[in-house]
Predict the structure of Class I SAM-dependent methyltransferase.
Amino acid sequence: MMRVLARLRSGLAALQWRDFALAYARCPFCGPSIFVRINRDETGVRCLRCAASAVHIAMGWALSAQCLDLAQSDACEFSARGPLVAYLQRCARSLKVSEYFADLASGQMRDGVYFEDMQRLSYADASFDLITHTEVLEHVPDDTLALAELHRVLRPGGYLLFTVPLFDSENTVERAYLRDGAIEHLLAPSYHRDPLRGGEGILAFRDYGRDILARLRAVGFAAPSLYVAPQKIPWISHSRIVVIAQK
Ligand SMILES: [Zn+2]
């Protein structure tokens, strides 16, 4: 409990006592649990046992729906801590974790955490049975390069599961480009909260639409699909979507 409260410390600044609530529900990572809501924002809902957010919980349901044999899976996740990492550490045969630091090269380490640039991974071809990431791809300047790299390091038959903010539109809207090391904005810059770096947050290069599936097919994924997570999280009325692709 103390550990979870410590994790929620940054969120406590956003605590609205009149919205504070507890509810019983099932967490895909820890089973029967109590959920806490600290404000009306979706990001204010957490599993009290493992601190999983709505995004993590959708990933958890998507993972269990795939019936993957995690005990026989070498996994790769593009964050270094949090409930999804803890779950994969517990259940997968092996797990590589990494974070993104703009000033390092893939495979380098800082404070005990490996760096990986999704556009130039340090991993060998066919290294993993499962790759996961949450709310990362929209921040990668060249997502075609990144998806091709993820395809390269997956084993044949391996799964890629991830979330991005997915908009109810046919086409992805490009918001910015990286050209010769400089960012060119096509639309007003949109920054997403970044617990690792703080500040103004991290730039979203695009708002994804349903054509994200075509982007996956273009780099070689055969039948990518959108998994609609069941609405099992208290207070959250809409379903979250997880992108699933198999090599
Ligand atoms: Zn949990």
